[in-house]
Design a protein that fits this description.
- The radius of gyration is 16 Å and the shape is globular.
- It is about 30% helix and about 20% strand.
- The protein contains 6 helices and 9 strands.
- The strands form 2 sheets. A 7-stranded mixed β-sheet has the order 3-2-4-5-6-7-9, with helices on both faces. Strands 1-8 form a two-stranded antiparallel sheet.
- It has one domain (about 5-15, about 30-180): Rossmann fold, CATH 3.40.50.
- By secondary structure, it is an alpha/beta fold.
Length: about 190
């Protein structure tokens, strides 16, 4: 089977990179966890299709929004530099307020936002916005994609029910790499 370059990069980035603690930067060190997550975010956007009217966002760019303080934002800027997604320029926006969510295609919710997770997911309900988190049970609580670590590697799970509910189409190639979960009730 011949794999497109972006899928090959996704597989190599996520499945073959070990998070080697103590590796020194600049000496052939493995990427940081934050860099791996940023690379995944870029690739997620390549393997998701949004409905025609995607949150009133610009048709000339794909907007990644980051809520909460996290090094993923700077690493995402670096991962997106010089790249295109569906022939559109990527753009990264950082914010703390939920009122600024309009126009995002991909929303990354940092772990520090755990206490506001239900509020954030409530604010995105019904929007064609790929919500990605790094908090335990994020996808099971109604988020769409969640990062977790297994055997020192960053992995991800996808809540297909949530993506379909808002009209996002996730490539079967991406789904094959993910652990699939369903929404469940309960508190964080």
């Amino acid at each position: 089977m011949i794999m497109p370059n972006s899928l090959r990069w996704l597989v190599l980035t996520g499945c073959a990179i070990s998070l080697a603690p103590g590796a020194a930067p600049g000496q052939g060190a493995a990427p940081t966890e934050s860099q791996v997550k940023a690379a995944f975010l870029y690739n997620f956007a390549n393997f998701v299709e949004w409905p025609e009217a995607d949150n009133g966002a610009s048709t000339s760019s794909v907007v990644f929004c980051v809520i909460g303080e996290t090094p993923v934002a700077a690493d995402l800027d670096a991962a997106l530099r010089g790249r295109k997604i569906h022939n559109r320029e990527p753009e990264v926006r950082r914010f703390r307020s939920l009122r600024e969510l309009g126009g995002c295609q991909v929303l990354f919710v940092s772990a520090e936002e755990g206490p506001r997770l239900r509020q954030i997911l409530g604010a995105t309900e019904g929007l064609a916005m790929l919500t990605v988190g790094e908090t335990e049970r994020f996808a099971k609580m109604g988020g769409m994609v969640n990062f977790y670590t297994e055997e020192s590697r960053v992995r991800f799970e996808i809540n297909v029910e949530e993506t379909r509910e808002v009209g996002l189409s996730v490539s079967s190639r991406l789904l094959r790499l993910a652990r699939l979960v369903e929404t469940e009730g309960g508190e964080l």
